[in-house]
Design a protein that fits this description.
Pyridoxal 5'-phosphate binds at residues 278, 320-323, 421. It comes from Streptomyces paludis. With 464 residues, the chain is of the alpha/beta class. 28% of the residues lie in helices and 23% in strands. The chain is built from 12 helices and 21 strands. Strands 4, 14, 15, 16, 17, 18, 19, 20 and 21 form a 9-stranded mixed beta sheet that branches. It has an 8-stranded parallel β-barrel with strand order 5-6-7-8-9-11-12-13, surrounded by 7 helices. A hairpin with a 2-residue loop joins strand 2 (48-50) and strand 3 (53-54). The longest helix has 21 residues, at 246-266. The protein binds pyridoxal-5'-phosphate. Pyridoxal-5'-phosphate is lined by residues 94, 96-97, 115, 138, 237, 240, 276-279, 320-324, 420.
């Protein structure tokens, strides 16, 4: 399989030969705006800055490892998505990518809606004042407690994921005296070009109800028959880190086909269609993501065309970008420790974090870039592998990267595009203390999620 057959970042281990690496950039000091947050630059002293603050100062004040999130970039991306989709569509930020109360407030202020998929995410959303009607509740195994909390909070939609759930949500709604708006998540049988561990639209997977074999049509039948549920539309999510719109085209066509069947059978035109998230970002300079405006236009053209040919009014579209909003807005700052040159192979550069703050490389073979950010260097490029400090040989942060050959312990390196699925998937492996998330904006920096402490660890350890 060629690289172009796999436009998604995470690739199967067998796609690229072991030891694959691209040529070094002409100048390792350049911070490619494609992969770095919008306000990141290198100043006259050669030190990288974000929001106008030098990373060396940030490291002094907040320590390393730490995630630095460019608030202006985050807000700008929210606005770009909202503007691109306009008044006839809804943008739901996928909270699992990264969620904190500050983020919820930004989303609220910028007019976005929010996807949650657990009681914890729902609690965070509500605690930060997100209006319940702008929250969608997802998940393939929602507990009774979670359903009850979602219904009683009055969430704008629950996305039904199984036949059992149709009945469970209806019972809860009846008990609480509410009519709950719901969508049905269908699996359309589209495989977006992505790693199988994170692709979610194969038939052989845990999410959703298959269109195939009339399953989804049966789910619609059962849902429409229950007065406690208000079926507003059909939901589909086809994968992650997708660049090619072809998968969405097939998925939209199949969902619209179902809407037409529903009209023919029940005389009902469902008013909504949710095409999910999964839009790709640039992790390296070789990735070429599309702008929200192009994506919005492509999706709306597809849906409009399919609906026209099925004789349906165009439903209200929603999308659920997570990574595409928060991913590019943050970088992880690490301090370099042990450096081991392995003759004829590569140089192993150890940093003070690793798989506990970024599991994606180990989990999905994800690719990242990395740069020396505490100073300029005009030394020759050396082939490096950036590894963490965990007791695991798969503890790799950046598999193949070029760093200047004069790299030394104490230097700061940063890995861009770590806003999504890094802090949210962070662990305490080896009793690592999960790093803080620091929001940077207009020359000011503030902690929005603080660093864990040893007291935090010991608090959970009852000691018996
Ligand atoms: C994970 C997920 C998303 C967000 O995916 P991104 O790749 O972060 O855009 C959106 N919708 C659903 C249902 C998801 O499971």
């Amino acid at each position: 399989m060629s690289r172009s057959a796999h436009p998604a970042g995470p690739r199967h281990g067998d796609v690229l030969p072991e030891g694959h690496y691209t040529a070094p950039a002409a100048d390792l000091n350049v911070l490619d705006p494609k992969v770095w947050a919008r306000t990141v630059a290198r100043d006259d002293d050669g030190v990288a800055t974000v929001g106008g603050i030098q990373v060396t100062r940030l490291a002094e004040e907040f320590g390393t490892p730490a995630y630095f999130l460019d608030e202006a970039d985050f807000r700008a991306r929210c606005r770009a998505w909202a503007d691109a989709f306009g008044a006839d569509a809804d943008v739901y930020y996928a909270g699992k990518a990264f969620l904190s109360r500050a983020v919820v407030r930004w989303l609220h202020e910028e007019g976005l809606n929010l996807d949650v998929c657990s009681g914890g995410e729902l609690a965070t959303a509500l605690a930060a004042g997100m209006p319940a009607e702008r929250i969608a509740f997802h998940g393939n195994n929602k507990s009774d407690e979670e359903i009850e909390r979602a219904v009683s909070a009055g969430v704008g939609r629950i996305v039904l994921d199984s036949f059992q759930e149709i009945v469970r949500v209806a019972h809860t709604a009846r008990r609480l005296g509410r009519r709950q708006p719901v969508q049905i998540r269908v699996t359309v049988g589209v495989e977006a070009h992505t790693h199988e561990f994170i692709a979610t639209a194969h038939e052989d997977q845990k999410f959703g109800i298959a269109l195939a074999g009339g399953q989804a049509a049966e789910a619609v039948r059962r849902t429409l028959a229950l007065d406690d549920l208000e079926l507003t539309g059909i939901h589909s999510h086809i994968g992650s880190q997708i660049f090619d719109m072809a998968g969405f085209e097939v998925s939209a066509r199949r969902v619209v086909q179902l809407l037409a069947e529903v009209r023919d059978e029940h005389g009902v035109e469902l008013p909504e269609i949710d095409l999910g998230g999964g839009l790709g970002i640039a992790y390296t300079s070789e990735d070429d993501p599309r702008e929200p405006y192009d994506i919005a236009k492509a999706l709306s053209d597809i849906v409009t065309r399919e609906c026209e040919s099925a004789g349906l009014a165009t439903p209200r579209i929603s999308v659920e970008p997570g990574r595409a909003i928060v991913g590019p807005t943050a970088f992880t700052l690490y301090e370099v420790g042990t450096i081991k040159p392995l003759e004829g192979l590569r140089t192993y550069v150890s940093v003070d974090g690793g798989m506990s703050d970024n599991i994606r490389t180990a989990l999905y073979d994800a690719e990242y870039s990395v740069a020396l950010v505490s100073r300029r260097s005009d030394a020759e490029p050396m082939l490096a592998r950036v590894v963490g400090k965990h007791c695991e040989s798969g503890d790799i942060v950046v598999r193949d990267a070029f760093l200047p050959a004069d790299l030394a312990p104490g230097d700061l390196v940063a890995v861009p595009a770590t806003g999504a699925y890094c802090r949210s998937m962070a662990s305490n492996y080896n009793h690592a203390l999960r790093p803080p998330v620091v929001a940077v904006k207009d020359g000011g920096a503030r902690v929005i999620v603080r660093r864990e402490t040893e007291e935090d660890l010991l608090r959970l350890d009852v000691g018996e």
